[in-house]
Amino acid sequence: MVKRGLVAACAVLCAVFAGSAQAQNNVPSPTLDAIRARGQLICGINTGVAGFSLPDSRGVWQGLDVEMCRGLAAAIFNDASKVRFVPLSSSTRFTALGSGEVDVLFRTSTQTMLRDTTLGLRHVTTYFYDGHGFMVRTASGVERARDMNGATICLLQGTTNEQVTADYFRSINVPFQPVIFERGDQAQAALLAGRCDAYGTDASSLAAVRSTMPNPSEWTVLTERFSKEPYGAYIRRGDDNWFDIVRWYTTAVIEAEEQGITRANAEEMRRTSVNPNTRRLLGVTPELGQSLKLDPTWAFNVIRAVGNYGEIYNRTMGPDTPVGLARGPNNLHTNGGLLYALPMR
């Protein structure tokens, strides 16, 4: 009788959990529903940073953040072109997201506790690791930030870099003069014009700015780093399904690189692989897509459209591009980096 009672109890619990999972899967997603109804994803990006988001000579947006937006559109529509880009400054990006002007931010936005808990927004998952640095004229002879006693430093309004710079110079009791701009192109112009002795922002952005200077060799990015700047997508609070989609989409492009799935071999691997993880990721078995309310081949469609994370990185800002950034912390954990795909099962 005891055994029968345990079996019955287990059956009840299984039914409860199954019902709970089914109920969760039936919860509507206002954001996903709105995107599907308009037939287009609206993605907030930077106003212009080489390697992340910058129009090319034809006026077409290019960069890592841009490709992350296109990949998300492919996950939803199986069409990477169904995305509209909205360039946003540092000071307006979170307001634009909160008001519904955009569906998601892929916009060099650091994940911080106060942003996550006070803005009515949620950061999703890290897709790029960076750190605050400074760029100076090579001829200045400055080798360390502490050498910039009394320097004027270009900074962007509404960024973590304002606080990081102020905190650092206060901590070493060295005066400096901040010169604040709303956009990166304004700061770059001021730097070239000699209004600032240095530019303080994330190191990847400094490398991007340096690559677009008339004479890049005249500028040096100091080797010191003064903060942790993990970039993550941001969405509005209150839509769990949309949170899940953005999080697991970001994870999927990293997982694809871990598994060696590329734009070139995705179709063959979907057809021939016997690896259960590969079959789940590429939609041979449908449970991942079903859990997100997406097509079973959602991740397969993403990889065919934009490739895995390494492919995206290398063609937008890798060593063979004008930005010329090595992978560093943005390499897979198996190659000494920090990128690590959560289990997709």
TrEMBL record:
<dbReference type="InterPro" id="IPR018313">
    <property type="entry name" value="SBP_3_CS"/>
</dbReference>
<dbReference type="Pfam" id="PF00497">
    <property type="entry name" value="SBP_bac_3"/>
</dbReference>
<comment type="similarity">
    <text>Belongs to the bacterial solute-binding protein 3 family.</text>
</comment>
<feature type="signal peptide">
    <location>
        <begin position="1"/>
        <end position="23"/>
    </location>
</feature>
<keyword id="KW-0813">Transport</keyword>
<dbReference type="InterPro" id="IPR051455">
    <property type="entry name" value="Bact_solute-bind_prot3"/>
</dbReference>
<keyword id="KW-0732">Signal</keyword>
<dbReference type="GO" id="GO:0006865">
    <property type="term" value="P:amino acid transport"/>
</dbReference>
<feature type="domain" description="Solute-binding protein family 3/N-terminal">
    <location>
        <begin position="40"/>
        <end position="269"/>
    </location>
</feature>
<protein>
    <submittedName>
        <fullName>Transporter substrate-binding domain-containing protein</fullName>
    </submittedName>
</protein>
<dbReference type="InterPro" id="IPR001638">
    <property type="entry name" value="Solute-binding_3/MltF_N"/>
</dbReference>
